[in-house]
Amino acid sequence: MYNIALLPGDGIGPEVIKEAKKVLYAIQERFGIKFNFKEGSVGGAAYEVFGAPLPDDTLNLVKDSDAVLFGAVGGPKWDHLKRELRPEQAILKLRKELNLFANLRPAVCYRFLADSSPLKNNIISGNLDLLIVRELTGGLYFGTPRGRENTGQTVRAFDTMVYTSEEIKRVARVAFEAARKRRKKVTSVDKANVLETSKLWREVVDEVSKEYPDVELSHMYVDNCAMQLVLNPGQFDVILTENTFGDILSDEASVLTGSIGMLPSASIGEKGPFLYEPCHGSAPDIAGKGIANPIACILSAAMMLEYSFDEKEAAMCIKDAVEKSLELGYRTYDIKEGEGKVLATSEMGDVIKKIILGL
Length: 359
Ligand code: NAI
Ligand code: MG
Description:
Blueprint: E1 2-9, H1 13-31, E2 35-39, H2 44-50, H3 56-63, E3 67-72, H4 89-97, E4 100-108, H5 120-124, E5 129-135, E6 147-151, E7 154-158, H6 165-180, E8 185-190, H7 196-209, E9 216-221, H8 222-231, E10 238-241, H9 243-256, E11 264-269, E12 274-278, H10 295-307, H11 312-327, E13 330-331, E14 341-342, H12 345-356
Parallel strand pairs: 1-2, 1-3, 3-12, 5-10, 8-9, 8-10, 13-14
Antiparallel strand pairs: 4-5, 4-11, 6-7, 11-12
Helix pairs in contact: 1-10, 1-12, 6-7, 8-9, 10-11, 11-12
Bound molecules: 1,4-dihydronicotinamide adenine dinucleotide and magnesium ion.
Residues 12, 72-75, 88, 91, 260-261, 277, 280-286, 292-293, 296, 334 line the site of 1,4-dihydronicotinamide adenine dinucleotide (NAI).
């Protein structure tokens, strides 16, 4: 039995979590895997009741679970709050508390959605299926010293990029392990022609690669990678990169796929519980209308089955069911084109559930 902490959060978070849960119940029925769900309060919803975006009760619930499925947090209602009370702090604090140092974002363009990609069919043509492994807890975003100096006439501001060999090693292992389950190719992205951290990055990744002789490693400069993602995204399997580069490249890769409503993610550490969430936010503009695309959250649940529980067949079953629903012409409004059947959030969940159960 797997204990799953469900953290729906704000806006469309609860709407998409409901559909992911529906799909996991279908998996339970079909594969005889048993799930035990417990819900926790998080984000603005938690602030309203407990005065904090990540209450202790929720943190304890999470730490007692085998995996966490997170919806989304935030909204204009809480934008005036000071930093540490804002809903978005919940996700940062969770990553820190659980020591999750690798963020995994697959970008897949489904054959049946290739027209929704800005690159269109000729480049994408069912050709985009990559996984970005981004280091999450080091680099420029956390390095010290950082700050400002006022030197009379001019103001100096500075940030520091720092990596230790241990930080690089552990995230590199995540990338090589992931590649082993895929097409066995890692592209490590850096700026080793300029940055000292990148030189160390390259050395350590080369060293780690010796543990994975079955995985092909290549190195690429980040500026070239930004171009290659648009020119020929099909060349990539797993992209391994540091925090800042990964932030930018994963957003670039995500728009190639069509809609943010389709993109799942996982945050992983040395040991669980790991955290799974759709890449999108709480989408206040469509919250409460029942029209959000639940697929990003449903695919996040599939990643949970794969990475936390090693239930490969069940994970594949969810991915296949999503693809089948698209093939059958079912769409939510964010991926609609032409005459497709546009469904509500819960109807899309129902379609995927029925495909899983063979109904
Ligand atoms: P967003 O991802 O919530 O929305 C961006 C656009 O995409 C909106 O037009 C929205 O309607 C659309 N969209 C997003 N998910 C969709 C889905 N599943 N189906 C259909 N359309 C979808 O990003 P935005 O607007 O920048 O942020 C809104 C709030 O969410 C903010 O408070 C932000 O801080 C928070 N946020 C939270 C995240 C998290 O919980 N991890 C991540 C990103 C933003
Ligand atoms: Mg970003």
